[in-house]
Amino acid sequence: MQTAEHVAMGFGAQVDTLRDMKIVLTNDDGFGAPGLEALTAAAQGLGHLTVIAPHTALSGCSHRVTTDSPLRFSTRGPDAHSVEGTPADCVRVALHRLVPEFDWVLSGINSGGNLGADVYYSGTVAAAREAVLHGRPAIALSHYRRRAVPVDWMRAAAWIAPLLAKLMKSPWSAGLMWNINLPHLDPGAPDPAIVFCGLDPSPLPLSYRHEEHDLLHYDGNYHLRQRVPDKDVALCLSGNITVTELRLY
């Protein structure tokens, strides 16, 4: 496990030495989502930004891609496009048509955590994974949410801006992506620590309520999920920004 001090020591020079990279921004909450707007604000100055996001919210779509029907995309403004497809489709459209020479994919900021087992269900993480499968580095970003407490998206942007700059200047090897999760703190609370940690292997709560006609409705409590003390679930839910390396191969 690494703290914010280790992060500061481990990543090269300052933000202003970053080259002019081509960066694709996407998500699974859909074009115009506040988390995507926060990510766009955080990535300013890191390179040339192009937003390519799903037309509608597709949370939990995992790594689904469209292969048996046409993919329609619409230009929504300068360097901004929506795709009638999944987050992974958005990366494919970027590679094939809109920004074929992009250097990075940043996916998020998802409204809700993508911790532990969530990475297998998340469209946000899948977009980053799709980029890595094509040999491009990527970061998935998510914001854990507590019920009835509003998210300060601009504060989230301020937290991740320097972290993005450092990660994007760190050495990258094929098959590697990062998964970042932000905690949901009370307004006015001190800024969180940044902790590098492993992925929690615990399953999500397996709980269903029975309804009529033999229907089952999932009612597992995300906030009460199992957790390993030094892994991402426990560390983020206790108030830290967690950064987890995920290796595809």
What does this structure look like?
The chain has 249 residues and is an alpha/beta fold. It has one domain (4-247): Survival protein SurE-like phosphatase/nucleotidase (Stationary-phase Survival Protein Sure Homolog, Chain: A, 3-Layer(aba) Sandwich), CATH 3.40.1210.10. The protein is 25% helix and 25% strand. It is built from six helices and eleven strands. The protein has helices spanning 4-10, 34-42, 87-98, 123-133, 153-169, 232-237, and strands at 21-26, 47-54, 73-77, 80-83, 104-111, 138-143, 176-182, 194-196, 208-211, 215-218, 241-247. A nine-stranded mixed beta sheet has the order 3-4-2-1-5-6-7-11-8, with helices on both faces. It has a two-stranded antiparallel ribbon with strand order 9-10. Strand 1 (21-26), helix 2 and strand 2 (47-54) form a beta-alpha-beta unit. Helix 2 crosses helix 5 and helix 3 (87-98) runs parallel beside helix 4 (123-133). The chain starts with a helix and ends with a strand. Residues 1-17 have low confidence and may be disordered.
Task: List the defining traits of the structure above.
alpha/beta; Stationary-phase Survival Protein Sure Homolog, Chain: A; nine-stranded mixed beta sheet; 249 residues; globular
Number of helices: 6
Reported CATH architecture: 3-Layer(aba) Sandwich
SSE pattern = HEHEEEHEHEHEEEEHE
User: How many β-strand runs?
Assistant: 11
| CATH C-level | Alpha Beta
Helix- and strand-based class?
Answer: alpha/beta
Count structural domains. Answer: 1
Distance between the termini: 22 Å
Spatial arrangement of strands, main beta sheet: 3-4-2-1-5-6-7-11-8
CATH H level, superfamily name: Survival protein SurE-like phosphatase/nucleotidase
The rounded Rg comes to 18 Å
Characterize the overall form: globular
Query: Low-confidence parts, pLDDT < 50 over ≥5 residues?
Result: 1-17
Give the quaternary arrangement of the chains. Answer: single chain
For the biggest sheet, the summary is: 9 strands, mixed
CATH fold title: Stationary-phase Survival Protein Sure Homolog, Chain: A
Mean pLDDT reading: 92
